[in-house]
From TrEMBL, chain A:
Chain segments annotated as transmembrane: none
GO MF term list: ATP binding; metal ion binding; phenylalanine-tRNA ligase activity; tRNA binding
Alphabetical GO biological process terms: phenylalanyl-tRNA aminoacylation
Cofactor: Mg(2+)
Enzyme class, spelled out: ligase
Protein name: Phenylalanine--tRNA ligase alpha subunit
Family per record: Belongs to the class-II aminoacyl-tRNA synthetase family. Phe-tRNA synthetase alpha subunit type 1 subfamily.
Primary residence: cytoplasm
InterPro entries registered for this protein in UniProt: aa-tRNA-synth_II, aa-tRNA-synth_II/BPL/LPL, Phe-tRNA-synth_IIc_asu, Phe-tRNA_ligase_II_N, Phe_tRNA_ligase_alpha1_bac, Phenylalanyl-tRNA_Synthase, tRNA-bd_arm
EC number: 6.1.1.20
Organism field: freshwater metagenome
Length: 342, 786
């Protein structure tokens, strides 16, 4: 007959078997399955614990208890370590498995739409002028002779009318309805309807009887500025053009005014802007609002004075994006339109 | 306008720095578009004479030419042209000369024999296009002299200036020179001319229609011979863009280009009986210098002779019958002043814009006629040194002729007010007297300014202020920025228009800008009523001759264009105006519209519809979806009118297949059209916040069999109304057609989420809401699906 194995040795043997079992576990699933047999209520260690009552010697029971606790701790720790080891391995495998090519989802690009280049330029211009304290005014595109010419100091048969090739619209009184040749008629409408002081810009579509070519369209866009206040001088015109130039094009741009002629302003000027490289671009026309125009707008030229300026929007867009032929902006070809994100 | 530097330099010493002169002209309001160097500056080509020619046995295509440039020494050149013989004078490019094409003349010859220069064709010298042989020179040219000096050819610098309408005096070199000299502060002098008048022979002048002519002068010149003008004068004319005709006509044109005074020379025989200036008679005709027979209008100015036969169209063009001919020996020079607007209308009516009419319509100095006539005689004397001036006669129509000196009061305070600089009368005088203005200080803060007669464009105080500003210098006036007391911002309408654009772009639409001018048939072809369509009076082309009443025709064309260029995924929108005939007043009822169109092959593309929903949400707008009245041009079964009561604000759905076929568009086109003028006006109210309930919610799912004739919209509304205030959302989550549902119906399934703000709902409350929804839907003829 063999003598009974000492309790402490029994514990050591169970620990040994348990640790070997744990070491052999290969997945968190196996860990979960094996856990009850190793540390659960029916595990070998639990059974040893419940048989501890048979030890009568208090010293022996004490040391057995300590050994059992140590055994429990080491098996728990080994199982927990195994569990996290398996989970880490499995997560790593999952991450590897789930790898995708992100660019597959980017190749297609955006489905976002596009603003027309002219709308983009108009909005940028509006924003700059709003920053300078201007409001935005609008007017009809089909105008009466009065607003397009007469109120702008061009009475009937004024020779300067020939500066614009005008498109006429059928009307009861022939020649009395035109497609506006410039945004200037809005000046008169604003003067008539807004109490001064007026700081306004007027962007919009204008029309000329011009055969289309690389730089001209019969239908195009202008922006007009009008300032009416007390004691507005030519200096204010030059300063405003300069402020706009820097705000819109950049601080290294400057502007200059040189004498010109428009029936609705006097003194009149063309304004040019100078690029950082020293080259000049002709931008538009401007001048002090002619006293007759102020009168036509219902304002007393002895009380109010002001200036106006205007230039083409299409050309700004053309320059900005190096569009070779302005007609391309009006083909409505999506291959062209989609180039310019807004 | 072409302005020649040599000509300017006759009035003041402007030097030769063309770049700074260009800048000066530009800063005076005469922008120089181009500076052209004209005339050959070729050096090293001299006049030589052929001594003899010789063949060489081994050279077939060239021969040996022996020439001399001094009559003594012999030079040998190889030459490939054979058109010269001994004694001919020919141009010799000497060794080292760089030809206009860049070639340098080298000694290298052929067959070991050097060539000591090259004989030139006219083309090689850029004299003309003749390359048929060596240029045989006139025999009188002196040997050894630089060819271009010998020919009397000149060089010049041409400033091509874009003249504005307010500077009539600059249509003559004198006017440009005066302005430029003032700007550069160099002495300026217009020549004084003494005309010696011999035996008097005057012609009668009668201004029969006083409104037709302000002043008329006629100068008789005898003993002239019609011949070519000297080369330098021909060069002046051709560089100014005019053709040389003969010495008489050239002298007249020369004076016009110099002084801005058109004149006209008649053969004296045609006007022995005198001049009669009047308006044209009914049915009167005139054959003008260009050979055209003109039917005259009673507002045309006619120059007639004493027998009242028309011999010229006043201010525009002379008549053919009174023209100076090679046989002419006696002439009468007309120098007159005609009213600008009358000439303008006359030239426009006859489509005959001449150099003369262009000047009269801008304004000619009414008192420049005599000086111009004197200058004409001076120029004509160059070719006719023996001419005799027989005196001149002049008549003035006082009511029509402007004053010689117009005076305008200039308030110095107004100079400050407009220009922002303070100037006294002396300073103003210093600035503008060099350009002919006379300034007298009135000591009361005003100055009296006399305007020179050559500046008819200046009539008011502000005109003078502009002249002051020009000569003060726009740059020198300085810059200041006014402080705007206005709040810079977009209006509500403008902000909402921006929002519309943002919604469009985010939803994938690309903005198009089709032409608002259409072919007269385009609107009808788009299935739209064209009764309100307005026509252009003077369209550029017939295809663009009416104003659009809808954005659809333009977008349909854009779609067809893109399809024909194999572009996929077509989503286009436009924000633009339509211009239907006005219901009141002369102007059309202009309206701002939005239109979107997308192409879709299978009829499942809902982007136009979902875009409507986006706009409803973004703008806080709404409309009835009226499918019972499909809009014209749309698919009648797949479209709806967007309306508010009787007001139609738009249309939505698919474009009619008939319309698509007309445009050659394949697939289906989804479209939404909306009046932005209407909806952007509406300012949405700020939404009042509702506290989100913290109590549990209950969901009820209901599926109904709904006849096809009843809209989902109506069912949805009924479900929501039935469920009452407890319904926080009602979502349509399933639409089913097919087995189990009859063909004339479909199943619509809704999920109602019920929730109270202040309590947990009881089962009874949920059941009641459910039943009420079912009852409400039942009233529309739909049943709960079994």
């Amino acid at each position: 007959m063999t003598s009974p194995v000492p309790f402490v040795e029994q514990i050591a043997a169970v620990v040994d078997v348990s640790l070997k079992t744990i070491a052999a576990l290969a997945s968190s699933e196996e860990v979960a399955q094996a856990a009850p047999g190793l540390v659960g209520k029916k595990s070998a260690l639990s059974q040893l614990k419940s048989s501890m009552g048979s030890i009568t010697d208090s010293e022996e029971r004490k040391s057995a208890g300590q050994a059992l606790h140590a055994a429990q701790t080491s098996v728990d720790a080994a199982l927990a370590a195994k569990k996290s080891e398996c989970e880490a391995t499995e997560m790593a495998a999952q991450l590897l498995r789930e790898q995708i090519d992100i660019t597959e989802h980017l190749v297609a690009g955006t489905t976002r739409g596009r603003l027309h280049l002219v709308t983009q330029a108009t909005q940028r211009l509006e924003d700059v002028f709003i920053g300078l304290g201007f409001q935005v005014a609008e007017g009809p595109e089909v105008e009466s002779d009065f607003y397009n010419f007469e109120a702008l100091n061009m009475p009937k048969s004024h020779p300067a009318r020939s500066m614009w090739d005008t498109l006429f619209v059928e009307s009861e009184e022939p020649g009395s309805v035109v497609l506006r040749t410039h945004t200037s008629p809005v000046q008169i409408r604003v003067m008539q309807n807004w109490p001064p002081p007026i700081y306004a810009i007027m962007p919009g579509r204008v029309f000329r009887r011009d055969t289309p070519d690389a730089t001209h369209m019969p239908v195009f866009h202008q922006i007009e500025g009008l300032v009416i206040d007390r004691n507005i001088t030519f200096k204010d015109l030059a300063g405003t053009i300069e402020a706009f130039t820097k705000a819109f094009f950049g601080d290294d741009f400057t502007s200059r005014l040189r004498p010109s002629y428009f029936p609705f302003t006097e003194p009149s000027a063309e304004f040019d802007i100078r690029r950082a490289n020293g080259s000049w671009i002709e931008l538009g026309g401007c001048g002090m609002v002619h006293p007759d125009v102020l009168r036509a707008g219902g304002l007393d030229p002895e009380e109010w004075s002001g200036f106006a300026f205007g230039f083409g929007i299409d050309r700004m867009a053309k320059e900005r994006h190096n569009v070779e032929d302005i007609r391309e902006m009006y083909t409505n070809d999506l291959r062209f339109l989609r180039q310019f994100s807004s | 306008m072409k302005i020649l530097l040599s000509w300017l330099n006759e009035f003041a010493d402007f030097g030769t720095d063309t770049e700074s002169l260009s800048d000066a002209l530009t800063s005076l309001g005469m922008p120089v578009e181009e500076v052209i160097e004209s005339g050959s500056r070729l050096q090293g080509v001299v006049v030589a004479q052929v001594l003899r020619t010789e063949r060489h046995p081994d050279a077939e295509k060239v021969h040996r030419v022996y020439v001399t440039t001094d009559g003594v020494n012999e030079l040998h050149v190889w030459c490939g042209a054979f058109n010269m013989s001994a004694g001919d004078k020919i141009p010799l490019a000497t060794l080292g000369t760089t030809m206009p094409d860049g070639r340098q003349i080298l000694k290298r010859g052929i067959l070991g024999i050097d060539s000591e220069g090259m004989l030139c064709s006219a083309k090689e010298l850029e004299l003309n296009e003749d390359h048929g042989g060596i240029f045989i020179l006139p025999s009188h040219l002196p040997l050894g002299v630089e060819l271009f000096d010998a020919l009397g050819a000149t060089t010049d610098t041409i400033f091509d200036i874009d003249l504005t309408r307010n500077r009539p005096e600059c249509w003559g070199h004198l006017g440009v020179a005066r302005d430029l000299a003032a700007h550069l502060a160099v002495p300026f002098q217009a020549k004084k001319i003494d005309v010696h008048t011999a035996p008097v022979h005057k012609v009668d002048i009668n201004i029969a229609s006083q409104d037709a002519c302000g002043r008329f002068t006629a100068t008789v010149v005898k003993n002239i011979a019609v011949r070519p003008s000297p080369q330098w004068l021909q060069d002046r004319l051709s560089r100014s863009g005019m053709r040389s005709i003969n010495n008489v006509v050239d002298a007249s044109n020369f004076v016009m280009l110099e002084l801005n005074q058109p004149t006209h020379a008649y053969d004296l025989n045609a006007v022995q009986s005198g001049f009669r200036v009047r308006f044209a008679l009914p049915q009167e005709t005139l054959v003008t210098l260009d050979g055209a027979t003109r039917e005259l209008d009673p507002t045309d100015i006619v120059i007639a002779n004493g027998e009242d036969t028309a011999i010229g169209l006043g201010g525009v063009m002379g008549g053919l019958d009174s023209e100076v001919t090679p046989a002419t020996t006696e002439i009468v020079l007309e120098a007159a002043w005609f009213p600008a607007d009358t000439v303008l209308e006359s030239a426009a009516r006859h489509g005959l814009r001449s150099e003369a009419s262009a000047r009269f319509e801008r304004g000619v100095d009414p008192f420049g006629a005599e000086y111009a006539a004197s200058r004409f005689i001076e120029i004509l004397q160059i070719t006719c040194p023996d001419l005799v001036v027989c005196g001149s006669s002049q008549v003035v129509a006082n009511n029509t002729c402007p004053q010689q000196l117009t005076q305008v009061t200039l308030r110095l305070s107004q100079v400050l007010r407009v220009l922002g600089v303070s100037l006294n009368a002396t300073e103003v005088h210093e600035l503008i007297w060099p350009i002919g203005f006379v300034v007298a200080d009135q000591k009361d803060g005003n100055a009296l300014v006399g305007i020179p007669s050559w500046r008819p464009d200046c009539t008011s105080e502000v005109d003078i202020i502009e002249e002051i500003a020009r000569h003060y210098g726009y740059d020198a006036l300085g810059k200041s920025v006014p402080h705007s007391p206005v709040h810079g911002r977009l209006s509500g309408v403008q902000q909402r228009r921006r929002l519309v654009h943002e919604v469009m772009v985010e939803a994938g639409w690309c903005e198009a800008m089709p032409n608002p001018f259409l072919d007269p048939s385009s609107t009808r072809l788009a299935g739209i009523d064209d009764g309100a369509q307005l026509a252009l009076v003077n369209p550029l082309v017939a295809e663009e001759s009416v104003l659009r009443v809808s954005l659809r025709p333009g977008l349909l064309r854009a779609i067809a264009y893109n399809q024909s260029h194999r572009v996929d995924n077509i989503h286009l929108y436009e924000v633009g105006h339509v211009y239907p005939r006005g219901s009141s007043g002369a102007l059309p009822d202009e309206e701002e519209m939005l239109c979107v169109m997308s192409v879709d092959s299978d009829g499942k593309d809902l982007s136009a519809l979902s875009t409507w929903n986006l706009l409803v949400d973004a703008l806080g707008i709404g409309a009835q979806i009226d499918q019972k009245n499909p809009p014209a041009g749309f698919h009648p079964g797949r479209s709806a009118t967007l309306r508010r009561g009787k007001t139609i604000i738009g249309a939505i759905g698919e474009i009619s297949p008939v319309v698509l076929k007309q445009h050659g568009i394949t697939g289906r086109v989804s479209c939404m059209e909306l009046s932005l003028s209407t909806v952007l006006r509406e300012e949405p109210k700020a939404v009042a916040a509702k506290t989100v309930s913290r109590y549990p919610s209950s969901d009820v799912d209901l599926a109904f069999v709904v006849p096809n004739t009843v809209s989902a919209f109506d069912i949805h509304r009924a479900v929501r109304q039935g469920a009452g205030a407890l319904a926080v959302s009602v979502d349509l989550f399933d639409i089913y057609r097919g087995k189990g549902v009859s063909d004339d119906s479909r199943s619509l399934a809704f999920r109602i989420r019920l929730q109270a703000p202040d309590r947990t709902l009881t089962d009874e409350e949920v059941a009641a809401a459910r039943q009420k929804s079912i009852d409400a839907v039942a009233k529309l003829g739909a049943q709960l699906r079994a």
